[in-house]
């Protein structure tokens, strides 16, 4: 199963990028034996004047990355919270059920547009506070890596 992190905005070279890349690389290594591959798709931020236009344009671009039938989980501070075990369990069940792709979508500075929220199968919050999208990327990459260790029984995760 393909896990795609789809993110509005581009992460420049630097410590945040290095940390993100490190978790993605680890997730890819641990995921291989589990039938999971992980990749990043980055989208440029909209330059529209109005926030609602920016959100609509970014939502349309994000949704172009979501194939028909794929699951879409949108990262959103208004979403549900989930334990790492529950997140790993969901990924494992989707894989076992024959799902081909899960897209994990991170919004831009204005957040997700309505089209993403209504298409999303789940909205996931890393708490009720607003985090910068760069940090959300790192948190998400770490949770994907952690999920692969949970599914493979690797001792990285200690609940
Ligand atoms: C700077 S935030 C956007 C905040 C925007 N005001 C909103 O209402 O969503 C950029 C992106 O980071 C992600 N994000 C920020 N805080 C989050 C949280 N607590 N949980 C999950 N995702 C979060 C979301 O994907 C969001 O679209």
Automatic annotation (TrEMBL):
<feature type="binding site">
    <location>
        <begin position="126"/>
        <end position="131"/>
    </location>
    <ligand>
        <name>S-adenosyl-L-methionine</name>
    </ligand>
</feature>
<dbReference type="InterPro" id="IPR029028">
    <property type="entry name" value="Alpha/beta_knot_MTases"/>
</dbReference>
<keyword id="KW-0963">Cytoplasm</keyword>
<feature type="binding site">
    <location>
        <position position="107"/>
    </location>
    <ligand>
        <name>S-adenosyl-L-methionine</name>
    </ligand>
</feature>
<dbReference type="GO" id="GO:0032259">
    <property type="term" value="P:methylation"/>
</dbReference>
<dbReference type="InterPro" id="IPR003742">
    <property type="entry name" value="RlmH-like"/>
</dbReference>
<keyword id="KW-0808">Transferase</keyword>
<dbReference type="Pfam" id="PF02590">
    <property type="entry name" value="SPOUT_MTase"/>
</dbReference>
<comment type="similarity">
    <text>Belongs to the RNA methyltransferase RlmH family.</text>
</comment>
<comment type="function">
    <text>Specifically methylates the pseudouridine at position 1915 (m3Psi1915) in 23S rRNA.</text>
</comment>
<dbReference type="GO" id="GO:0008168">
    <property type="term" value="F:methyltransferase activity"/>
</dbReference>
<keyword id="KW-0489">Methyltransferase</keyword>
<protein>
    <recommendedName>
        <fullName>Ribosomal RNA large subunit methyltransferase H</fullName>
        <ecNumber>2.1.1.177</ecNumber>
    </recommendedName>
</protein>
<dbReference type="InterPro" id="IPR029026">
    <property type="entry name" value="tRNA_m1G_MTases_N"/>
</dbReference>
<keyword id="KW-0698">rRNA processing</keyword>
<keyword id="KW-0949">S-adenosyl-L-methionine</keyword>
<comment type="subunit">
    <text>Homodimer.</text>
</comment>
<feature type="binding site">
    <location>
        <position position="75"/>
    </location>
    <ligand>
        <name>S-adenosyl-L-methionine</name>
    </ligand>
</feature>
């Amino acid at each position: 199963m393909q896990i795609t992190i789809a993110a509005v905005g581009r992460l420049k070279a630097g410590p945040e990028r290095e940390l993100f890349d490190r978790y993605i690389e680890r997730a890819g290594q641990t995921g291989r034996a589990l039938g999971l591959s992980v990749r990043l798709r980055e989208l440029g931020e909209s330059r529209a004047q109005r926030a609602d236009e920016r959100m609509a344009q970014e939502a349309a671009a994000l949704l172009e990355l979501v194939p028909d039938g794929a699951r879409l989980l949108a990262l959103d501070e208004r979403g549900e919270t989930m334990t790492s075990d529950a997140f790993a369990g969901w990924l494992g069940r989707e894989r076992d059920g024959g799902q081909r792709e899960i897209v994990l979508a991170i919004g831009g500075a204005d957040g997700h547009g309505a089209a993403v929220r209504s298409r999303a199968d789940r909205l996931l919050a890393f708490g009720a506070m607003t985090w910068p999208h760069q940090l959300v990327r790192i948190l998400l990459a770490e949770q994907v890596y952690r999920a692969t260790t949970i599914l493979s029984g690797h001792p990285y995760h200690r609940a």
